[in-house]
Design a protein that fits this description.
Layout lengths: L7 H8 L10 E3 L8 E5 L2 E10 L7 H17 L7 E8 L5 H17 L3 E9 L7 E11 L13 E5 L4 H17 L4 H8 L8 H10 L2 E6 L4 H13 L2 E5 L7 H10 L12 E5 L1 H13 L4 E8 L5 E5 L2 E4 L7 H15 L1
Parallel strand pairs: 4-5, 9-12
Antiparallel strand pairs: 1-2, 2-3, 3-6, 4-6, 7-10, 7-11, 8-10, 9-11, 12-13
Helix pairs in contact: 2-3, 2-6, 4-5, 4-8, 5-8, 6-9
Amino acid sequence: MNIGKVSDEFFRRNIAGKLGAPAADLVVGPAMGVDAAVIKVGEQYMVVAEDPIFPVPGLPLRDFGWFTVHIGASDVAVLGVKPRYMTYSLLVPPATPEDDLAEIISSISETAAEEGITIVGGHTGYYPAVTVPTIGGVTVWGFGDEVVTPAGAQVGDEVIITKGAAIEAAGLLAQVYGDDMLAAGIDPEIVREAAAMVYEMSVIREALLAVEVGGVHAMHDATEGGVLRGLHEVAVASRVGLRIDAEAIFVPPAAKVTCQHFGIDPLVSISEGTMVMTCSPSVTGEMMRAFDRAGIRAAVVGEVVPEAAGRKLLRDGREEELTVPDRDPFWEVFFRDLLAREGA
């Protein structure tokens, strides 16, 4: 079963060459590992991103609005631009109570207001083909004088990650299968900590903070494929090499326990909310202090090297190629167990 984003190979064969009419003002277009598009508008750059949003079983409808805004807006912020406007399409089953629909709409509006984002349009409707409330697409955009893309890493940069690995994987698995974890004897506090990670699935704060500090050359949100794929995508986009210390990639204790319980590797499991960035060594200290003051855990995990030096991961005292699997292991576990539960 195919779950999640299409493969790199499918993208190259079936999407990359089918992008409609060319445009001279398109600065950054669709590419694997690129979170948003960049269009030159006058003297400024418009950054625009699009995402579908699915509900998490068991979470309150009010949280659905938080995810809708933060997941969409993070893809704009990670290019160094403050998210400013959004539209969304909310699709629900015909039997959805009006109060539920109103709750979702209200939560989206309140979260957008908190982030200074104006909702300028969209679509809302009931459809028989839809089985759960779904955001068919949220589009977020903003304008800036400069942009930071995953393709900007420079040789000599230091590599930083925020929050740690497997943030989204641990959060969603603990939210949906927390009872199963408790039944297996996992400490209830660990389960609660893991479940709370769903509210860390945003990089708006750290992305805008990094731009404020300055000296940042590349930023990327470690979504599908986790931290290692995020690192790999930055290296490929920037045409550089990497030397990464696997032991420096911290995994929050609750995330480590959760991933061990479900048998998935936290370094290659979806981690929306973990930002991968590269910056000049001259600002690394200031950057780390700024993150610390903001209460955002961060770590220097490696350096950018010439492409000819390769992309290397130092693990258990050995040097290996920094590679990522074709599929994120999270999806198979999440949907396999969810479907089994619904079938039961």
